[in-house]
Amino acid sequence: MFFFHEVPHLTTGLYHQFPFWNPYYYGGASLIGNPQARFLSPSFLYTWAFGVVNGLKIEIIIHLFLGMLGMYFLSRYLQIKGIVSFLPGILFALNGFFALRLGEGHITFMPALYLPFIFLFYLKAIKHPIYIFLSALCLSLVLLEGGIYIAPYCALFLMIFSALHSLKNKSFRPIALVIILFIIFILFSGPKLFPTIELLRQYPRPTGASSAVPLKYLYDIFLKKGQSVYTPYFPEIRTGWWEYGAYLGLLPFVFFILSFRLFKKEWPLFITGILFLLIGMGNYGRYSPWAIIHSLPALNNMQVPSRSFFIFIFVFSILVGLCLDHFSKKYVKKIYPGILLIIFCYILSDLIVTNSKIIHEAFVPISSKGLSFNIKSGFKQISIPEEEKFKYGAWSSMYFTLMKNEGIINGYDPIPIKTSALPYQDNNYRGEFFLENGRGEVNLLYWSPNKLIFRCAINGPDTLVINQNFDRGWRSDYSSPIKPHQGLISLGLKPMDKTIIIYYLPFSFIAGLCALIISIILFILRHKLLYPLINYFN
After folding, report:
1. b/e burial code for range 318-332 (CB count within 10 A of at least 16 → b)
2. pLDDT class of 361 with cuts at 50, 70, 90
3. Residue 440: exposed, middle, or buried by beta-carbon count in 10 A (0-12, 13-18, 19+)?
């Protein structure tokens, strides 16, 4: 994740370009289309201002605060009062789910902390349609921050809850609002969503439905202390705590069980939360919830079902707050009001003491002190021996290779990018650019991630080949089109050609900008186009 933050940081700060292309891994691939790239989010400003390592530390603190703040506003909207209104935010933001994923480096799970705002604005939109734009904007922010898992799960949560809410209130309006929300979300997030779809269609990643989580691990997942990135794997699941751990504590679970007395009033929330708990338990049968949703288009690219647990934790936190609020109004004020403060302080201290040390594990193995980008070194593609990949404490050495101005052919990415570029150690390596037939010479005048300029002096028709993966987004100011040559970028040349400029600008991004403009127009004309449609379902 340091790598995916540093590439756009360098592209904008050093080369003064919009970061469309990433030449630094797997021979080059779309950067704006990579779902893990987060530079379109406002939170990227922290990285730009303070550097990658410090910027991410600031981001973590701010995201955790926003998660608590959103839950506070949501709690107040749900009529949870007093000190109890702070409790759902504490449970949602400070539990082990986020701590472990941050410890492992899963920064793209931080946007899940926007879910309280998404849900709050959706509930408000049922009465005041203007809030549907804010809900869609927050959901778009999830995608812009790399929430490739988070955005689909949030959308699925809204779909299920809206269906149950419509059934409870015998009104189609909640479902209609979700449909409109999704349309606005697609338009809002077009500049990121469309390039992402293009990249994933180019390199699809269908995965297996995984296995089920044994019931005996439920206690360990939510109640066992000592969870850590470095503790042993679950034998049956063959993965670490960072994928399944989500320490919440025993006392909150007591209140969660007691909250079932509110089932008659809050049954849409209960059913939605339990359903996502079952989804997170994995593939325990042909008709298990996870097996069903994993068979759907796009969702079949997702793996590790426990990543949906944050939805259950979100609902869990709300229900604990509702239960304790109901309990306090009925009993506590008659007995001893200070007991609420004691319960709150105990839960808060328990979560902080248990989970805060895990976050430190995100930064302990890697130190970037004194590490600076070596622009004097010419760019080249390299291959790293397997034994050196983990020398820096991460799953790969991409970040440190990048700072040497080198592109690593055998990097680390869940997207199965097909590499056609060759490392300089390869016997067939002919340079980072070359003439296929050798009829003259070509000199590189300017190099940057998104733009290359060449001076040509050839004595016959030839083909300029660049040692980076071909992509349809590459363009040229020259009349001859850019074509693939054994999977590499190439351009046909003639003897009269002197200066050639090629640059990367994907059409999917342009289409996404058009979608964004349409969303702005829709917002401006909402009283004429959108509100009459929503009011039709009153």
Report:
1. bbbbbbbbbbbeeeb
2. confident
3. middle
In the predicted structure, residue 533 carries a pLDDT above the cut 90: no
Q: Which domains, and CATH codes, for the chain?
A: 46-360 (no CATH), 433-507 (2.60.40)
Residue with the two structure tokens 């590439």: 7
pTM for this model (two decimals): 0.92
Spell out the residues 6+ positions from residue 272 whose beta carbon is closer than 8 angstroms to its own: 157, 160, 161, 164, 311, 315
Residue 27: CB partners within 8 Å, gap ≥ 6? 381, 407, 409, 417, 419, 420, 421, 467, 468, 469
Residue position matching structure tokens 């590459």:
474
Per-residue tokens: 384:
């790293």
Share of the chain above pLDDT 90, in %: 60
Q: Is pLDDT at 448 greater than 70 in this prediction?
A: yes
Nearest to 18 by CA among 254, 248, 191, 198: 191
Q: How far is CA 56 from CA 45, 108, 482, in A?
A: 10, 11, 38
In this structure, are residues 123 and 379 in contact, taking their beta carbons and an 8 Å threshold?
Answer: no
Q: How far apart are CA 41 and CA 28, in angstroms?
A: 22
Residue 160 binned pLDDT confidence (cut-offs 50, 70, 90): very high
Q: Which of 294-298, 392-396, 425-429 has the lowest mean pLDDT?
A: 392-396
Contact 322, 266 (CB under 8 A): yes
Of the two residues 228 and 181, the one the predictor is more confident about is 181
- 273: nearest Cα among 322, 240, 236, 225: 322
Residue 370 scores a pLDDT above 70: no
Amino acid identity, position 285: G
Q: What average pLDDT is seen over the chain? A: 89
Cβ atoms of 463 and 491 within 8 Å: the answer is: yes
- Decide: helix, strand or coil at residue 12: helix
Residue 85 is classified by DSSP as G
Question: What does the alpha-carbon distance between residue 98 and residue 64 come to, in Å, rounded to a whole number?
Answer: 9
Res 371: pLDDT:
66
Q: Say what the pLDDT of residue 240 is.
A: 79
- C-alpha distances (whole Å) from 403 to each of 17, 390, 393 are 18, 16, 16
Give CA angle at 215 (360, 268), nearest 5°.
85
Residue pair 411/396 in contact (Cβ under 8 Å)? The answer is yes
Give the Cα separation of 24 and 22 in Å (integer). Answer: 6
